[in-house]
Amino acid sequence: MKKIVCVTNVGLDEPGGRAAALKTRFETLEKDGWIVDQLILKNHHNVFLKTFELKRKIINGFKLVWSMNNPFTLHLPPLILKKAGYDFKWIAEFRDPIYLNPDPKKFRMVYRIVEKEIVSESDAVVIVLGMQVDKIDFLKIYNRELNGKIFVLPFAGLEDICSDPSPCKKTMPFTITYAGSFYKDWIEPLSFLVGFNKFVGKLNLKDEDVQVRFIGDWDEEYSKKVKKLNLQGYIKIKRWMNKKDIIPLFMNSHLFLYIGGSKTENKKNVSLKIWDYLCYARPIFALCKEDYVVKDFILKNRFGYVADYDDPKDISEKLIQAFLDFKTEKVHKSIKKLLQNRRRFDRKRHDDVFVQICDIIYSKHRSKII
Predict the structure, then answer these.
(1) Domain ranges of the chain
(2) What pLDDT does residue 85 have?
(3) ω into 70 cis (within 30 of 0)
(4) CA atoms of 74 and 6, how far apart (whole Å)
(5) What is the DSSP letter of 123?
(6) Mapping DSSP to helix (H, G, I), strand (E, B) and coil, where does residue 16 land?
(7) What percent of the chain has pLDDT over 90?
(8) Which of 128, 211, 223, 342 is the most exposed place for a label (fewest CB within 10 A)?
(9) pLDDT value at position 342?
(10) Which of 228, 217, 240, 219 is nearest to 193 (CA)?
């Protein structure tokens, strides 16, 4: 019997893109005949406690373990048990590199040791297109340790529920929606707020004409910026919500905001947020730097607009373009093209490839996994 246990930090019913993506992965595994279990590690202080829990699951027949970062501590329970000599097979999925993107940076050399041990001890290393980790970077550093056991998943892609999008109605206010996290000095809305202020000033727009909704993270510093720019009437803040509660807000949006930041560590990332946005068939407004993968991804697939994360003037100009496309109904042509192009990116294909990897590991080590 095929059994697999996933080490993760989210439950399937929690808000956010990771839980939703994990749920479709589990469902695809179960359709392929796998019995799937979960080990949830919320806090690094519980690593050793969860290691004992994982040991019990392995003894009870879950001989294939799959862990994914971030955080990197999710890889530690299987690593500890491997080092202790327990007999199981391990798939280590890297979303972000540990050593090449250390947090905090002062532990960089410690992370180098840990990452090398994970790569060496695991039976398969899986990386995902559109995440920060890169196959070429890994092969440069760990070519000998990888030795033919590295696998690449396609882009995370769209869920099946995205097949019937709601129409984009020409109703005021023009609504821009952001959903997700912010990270200090990395991904923040400050430059957007300055650019947005220039945008409403140039077009003399009132708060009944345009609104911005931020769903998820928010910081007092951002509220101070909103107040300083006198944008209180335009900016609406909503804390974390379940996916079912977010759906009506997404359906009543006209433009989705994606903030990629400006740090080189994030330039290869096409986050799960992009797929959530594309699901609702609205243009995306991405803020990032020139060499970011997401810039080409948005523009080449005609999924929306891109502005320089650090340039409020550019942000203002692109917002004007998006608003005028909405007012003149050019946006409907854009959405039609978006719908055509998004068909190339399918969550099912992403999940199917992962299941194939699990089946390969199972077939290769069947005598030890059963």
Answers:
(1) 3-157+347-369, 161-342
(2) 94
(3) yes
(4) 10
(5) S
(6) coil
(7) 61
(8) 223
(9) 87
(10) 228
